[in-house]
Every structure is written in C-alpha cells, then in structure tokens.
Amino acid sequence: MELINTYQLTLVSWFFAFLAAFLLGTSKAGIKGIGVVIVTLMAIVFGGKSSTGTLIPMMLFADLLAVIYYHRYSQWKYLKKLMPTMVIGVLIGVWLGNDISDELFKRLMAFLILGIVVFMIIMDRRKSTAIPKTRLFSNSMGLLSGFTSMIGNLAGSFSNIYFLAMRLPKNEFIGTAAWLFFIINIFKLPFHIFVWKTISVESLAINLFLVPAIILGFFIGIKVVKLINNELYRKFIIIVTAIGALILLFK
C-alpha cells in the first residue's frame, strides 16, 4: 500500500480511476469511441502526461483479453496497411511529445476527427458503398493513429474511422482493432519506460488494483456488443466518436 500512497489518491480519485478502467474494458470488448472519456478521467486523477504511462499497462492487459476473445475475426490485410505508418506516427509522437502543448494537440485532433466524421456521415447519407482504397487514406489514418496514440492514447478515433470506411462487420472490426492496438501498445511500452519515464513501480501497483475493473468492464461489454447488429453498431461508433471529439474540443 505504501507504493500506492505515493499518489495520495482520494476516494473520488479512486472512483474515477476504477470508472476509467471499467470503461477501458468495455471499449476493448467492442464499445468503441469512448477513448476520450477514459483518457480524460485518467488525466484528472494522474495528470496529463503521467496518465499516459499509467494507462499503457492497463491497455495492454485489456488488449490481451480482446485478442484472446476476438482473434478469429482479425483481418490482417488491414493491419498490414495501417501498421507501417502507425509505427512512424508513434516515433514522431515520441520526438514531439515533450514540445507540443496539450491545448494545441486537443484542438487539432478534435477538428480532424470531426471533419472526418462529417465526411463519413455524408457518405452514409448518400448510401455510398465505395471503399476508399487509396494509399493516401490508409497512410494518413495510420500516421494520425500512431501519433495520437503516443501523445494521448487517442488513436481509437482514427482507427475507428478507418475500419468504418472499410465497412468491416462488427466482429471483424473489433478483432482487427484488438490486434492492431496490442501490437502498437507493446511497441510504445519501452518509450514510456526509458524515454518519457511515465511508468514506474508505483504506477504498476496502481494498475494491479484496477485489473478487476477492466475484467468486469470487458465481460459486460461483450454482452452489450452481442445485442447490437452491424448497422446499429456502425451508427453507434460514428455518433460516439463525434461526441468524443466535441469533449476533446471543449474540455
């Protein structure tokens, strides 16, 4: 307990931390688009940059649960398109992470996400079934996903948009995202430990206490996802992603 007391968390802070862990579990089970809420809650408890390191081990654990449960649905051809530029995006994030202001980052990401969501809504209203197959689109989404993942664990919005644009069915969407983030979060881990130094023995002790909330959220999330059909799931992701961008813009 002495390690945890280093953070001097209040009961309210513990509540926010457990809520963030619970929502992380539901998110990795397939309730996508709530990443901004999770990141915001963790930032309230641990501070902006410190919270990114506290969140990474939790995300890896939740990613592992998702990979185990949804692995048979993964579509590796989409991972191969996103992964190279996503890695580059992470490296750019490591390089610029100490210099870019939180305020500029939040505003820029919010406008980008909202712009792409509006484009997706327009395409849906036109009943367009065309899938953007250009390298420019996949490379842009990969780069933005990697950069935002390293800076603020917010890659989910851009990967969600990419998988929606590819019109992946619900389970393929979740399974492909599970492997994508499991791999990229493992890649990010050494940078948090050795470069940014945002992961410590104390933060890992906190992570252990939050594991039950992640597990609970994951299994509840699975039950909820089973109740949602593919078309409703697509609309849900678009709406929640847009709400997340608005929260990012005005918080």
From TrEMBL:
Membrane association type: Multi-pass membrane protein
Subcellular location: Cell membrane
Keywords per UniProt: Cell membrane, Membrane, Transmembrane, Transmembrane helix, Transport
Pfam families associated with the record: TauE (PF01925)
Cellular component terms (Gene Ontology): plasma membrane
Domain of life: Bacteria
Transmembrane regions listed in the UniProt entry: 6-24, 31-48, 54-70, 82-98, 104-122, 143-165, 177-196, 208-226, 232-250
Family to which the UniProt record says this protein belongs: Belongs to the 4-toluene sulfonate uptake permease (TSUP) (TC 2.A.102) family.
PANTHER family named in the record: MEMBRANE TRANSPORTER PROTEIN YDHB-RELATED (PTHR30269:SF23), TRANSMEMBRANE PROTEIN YFCA (PTHR30269)
Protein name as catalogued: Probable membrane transporter protein
Organism expressing this protein natively: Gramella jeungdoensis
